[in-house]
Design goal:
This protein has 192 residues and is an alpha/beta fold. The protein has a single domain, classed as Rossmann fold (3-Layer(aba) Sandwich), CATH 3.40.50. The protein is built from 9 helices and 5 strands; from the N terminus they run E-H-E-H-H-H-E-H-E-H-H-H-E-H. Helix 2 packs across helix 3, helix 4 runs parallel beside helix 5 and helix 6 packs across helix 7.
Length: 192
């Protein structure tokens, strides 16, 4: 079972690339953002809690995210050829929790791919996405807060995954298909 972490700041194209990976390889795409937005639409207890943090551009508490992720993983593991974790982990404690959760299921993270995109491009992409999609969290003030949180809390994962020997970087600026090809090279190396 391949467990693949797609990583990068908000707006790097993780969702776009994850959809392409899922289609090509038969992996289950677990987007924590999509899962949380679904809970918010249902107005569940988790959804209400998540909305409180998302509206402020903050991260969801680790224990809440880990519980949600384990439920989704267990529900999908029989049908999936692998998993793409999109938006998780976002902190070193979450990476440690993911490692533990997967170890309890006799598997592990196979690779982490970091999509690198310059910050000015990220802001432009996210503001444009907000105009098109109507996502309330894609406004410039919230985007800047999300990027600040990313740099403070999430970016340290790069060093953590380097130490685990799982880190791969892909230039996330340019044509979608070229970026996808670069990611496929990483997956194909793991699969070999």
């Amino acid at each position: 079972m391949i467990n693949f972490v797609i990583f990068g700041a908000p707006g790097t194209g993780k969702g776009t690339q994850s959809a392409k990976i899922a289609e090509k390889y038969g992996f289950c795409h677990i987007s924590t953002g999509d899962v949380l937005r679904a809970e918010i639409r249902k107005d569940s207890e988790i959804g209400q809690l998540a909305k409180h943090f998302i509206d402020k551009g903050q991260l969801i508490p680790d224990d809440v995210m880990c519980d949600i992720l384990a439920r989704v993983y267990d529900a999908k593991k029989k049908e999936a050829k692998g998993f793409i974790f999109d938006g998780f982990p976002r902190t070193i404690p979450q990476a440690e929790a993911l490692k533990k959760m997967l170890a309890e299921r006799d598997t592990e993270v196979s690779a982490m791919v970091d999509l690198e995109v310059p910050e000015d491009e990220l802001i432009a992409r996210l503001v444009n996405r907000g105009r098109i999609s109507g996502r309330a969290d894609d406004n410039e003030a919230t985007i800047r807060e999300r990027l600040k949180v990313y740099h403070e809390q999430t970016q340290p994962l790069i060093e953590w995954y380097k130490q685990e020997g799982l880190y791969h970087v892909v230039d996330g600026l340019g044509e979608i298909d070229r970026i996808f090809g670069d990611i496929c090279q990483v997956i194909d190396q793991i699969n070999a």
